[in-house]
From TrEMBL:
The keyword Coiled coil applies. This is Death domain-containing protein. One of its GO terms (biological process) is signal transduction. InterPro entries: DEATH-like_dom_sf, Death_dom.
Amino acid sequence: MAMASRRVFRLDISHMKLVSDVLKESHFIDADWFELGMGLNLPYPGLANIRARFTDPSQCLLECLSLWLTSANNRTWESLASALERMNKKPAATLIRNTCKVNIHKYKYKLKLKLLTKGKLINEIFKSKKSETQYFRTSLLMKAGTDSTGIICLYYLITGRKEALVEYKQEIELLQENVSITSAQLLMSQKGNIESM
């Protein structure tokens, strides 16, 4: 029977304060940092190096967490909770598992909010570009009248075909002569926008 794969939320160094705060909240004793490091399967030489460099247990715990969050493969809330359980720190493990659930829900909510915000922003940009195009199309049609060169040029500008701009460069120049300075500036700005796409 195949099991459904679950997406695992990986921790990294940016979660250092959060992990540290959760351990404090669970009344984890800083002096137990070495045992925690062993429970997290951190390499003994790395833990020995921390013990040799620092004497303050709080600093040692932070260094141990830093090593775990930057180098280990098992950087998940569950692996932290399991390590604490093996140390007989069951209340701390339970608190961490609960924190994990809350943080995942917060993360998903923030992600959905970001996506909605980006979607709204894209819609606004699209609406403004559409209204710019409408204005450009209307003003150019009014200026070009029924001149076939102007209408052909306008068609190709609106469709956004770059090669059409090259093909009809002479037509654009002719159209500019017949159009007011304001319309010519608008045409060139649109040409620049299309070329930058």
